[in-house]
Specification:
Layout: E1 10-15, H1 23-27, E2 31-37, H2 41-52, E3 60-66, H3 73-84, E4 89-94, H4 99-113, E5 119-123, E6 127-129, H5 133-144, E7 148-150, E8 153-157, E9 179-181, E10 189-193, H6 194-200, H7 215-225, E11 230-232, E12 238-242, H8 249-270, H9 274-302, H10 305-308, H11 310-322
Helix pairs in contact: 2-3, 8-11, 9-11
Length: about 325
């Protein structure tokens, strides 16, 4: 890797004793699980516990990336957990705010610390891993002979949320069956071969997506352009806690608009000339024209007009981004 984080952007806060200054132990690590956290200390403990309970023969560690420079409670929670747990880990302070910056800090640390690393995995601090998650994801990478593997994020709705929301497209997995796939989209449940990160170079995720979201989709799009292959393991889910706020119409509508804006932004970044840009505008207009019919079909399928309107929101979000009206309006809210 030619590029590195700026001095002070990434700081190791804590390292498990059997890893600290122990090159022999580090050389045995095959898998690094990176876990960004921002003001979710209680759920972070649940996530760490689920990693502690993994059933796998692989030698793995967990890297927690604290992304709250003003608080840092997550870093202290992770440090206390690692001190008394069989789960080995590193706590990193990612001082540049934003989810892409946090991922970059953790991924860089993994490659710097573990020279024989085969895979990097990602889980978020609002998720819990199923017991065979590591084993099934790594096995999928080997059996499918792919460079990146995605898996489902199963929603667990808090409070009195109606189970029907699990049928909303924003809570649906990208794929339904295991096997090779053209591409994946989310970093919430993913395995990435270390060679992919070495090839793509730092910063792996573009930090301009820090608060809009979509940095993961942009990264996968660039990986696809570089010839890397993708797979899906439907039997390696993580359980994602969904706050009640995210089942409200205002949040769901904003998420649809943001998803549309992100898709346009990623396509425009890959465009190489006027012809490509014209194709993107044509696609956006075509999706806008088709969106009432697609939304009606989704309404008929789910029985919910709030779910049904998703396709219209995506199409409008795409068109707004075409004219530069979506960069700030659709900033992704902080997880708290």
């Amino acid at each position: 890797m030619d590029n590195k984080p700026a001095l002070g952007d990434v700081e190791i806060h804590y390292m498990s004793g059997n890893l600290d200054n122990n090159d022999t132990q580090k050389s045995l690590v095959e898998v690094a699980i990176t876990l960004p956290t921002f003001r979710r200390p209680e759920h972070l403990q649940k996530t760490l516990k689920s990693l502690e309970n993994q059933r796998t023969a692989h030698n793995f560690v967990c890297i927690v990336m604290e992304n709250d420079p003003d608080g840092g409670l997550g870093a202290e929670v992770a440090k206390r957990f690692f001190k008394t747990s069989a789960l080995r880990g590193i706590v990193v302070n990612a001082h540049r705010r934003g989810n892409c910056s946090a991922y970059n800090a953790g991924w860089f640390t993994a490659l710097e610390q573990f020279e024989n690393l085969r895979w990097l995995m990602v889980i978020d601090d609002d998720e819990v891993a199923t017991p065979d998650w590591v084993e099934k994801m790594t096995l999928a990478a080997e059996e499918l002979e792919v460079d990146l593997v995605g898996g489902p994020q199963i929603p667990l709705f808090e409070g009195n949320a109606d189970p029907k929301w699990s049928r909303h497209p924003v809570f649906q997995p990208a794929h339904q069956t295991s096997g090779r796939v053209p591409i994946i989209y989310s970093t919430g449940n993913v395995l990435i071969a270390a060679k992919v990160l070495h090839h793509m170079g730092y910063p792996y995720l573009e930090e301009k997506f820090n608060f809009l979201g979509g940095g993961d989709s942009d990264f996968y799009s660039r990986c696809q352009s570089e010839g890397f292959s993708f797979g899906w393991e439907n039997d390696a889910p993580v359980i994602e806690t969904i706050p009640e706020r995210r089942t409200e119409m205002s949040w769901l509508n904003a998420r649809g608009l943001r998803n549309g804006a992100i898709s346009t932004l990623i396509e425009k970044r890959a465009a190489s000339g006027f012809g490509d840009k014209l194709k993107i505008i044509t696609k956006s207009l075509a999706l806008l024209a088709a969106s009432p019919f697609r939304s009606f079909a989704l309404f008929v399928k789910t029985g919910s007009p709030i779910i049904g309107i998703y396709h219209i929101n995506v199409a409008v979000g795409r068109l707004l981004m075409e004219f530069g009206f979506a960069n700030e309006q659709y900033r992704e809210p902080e997880k708290n």
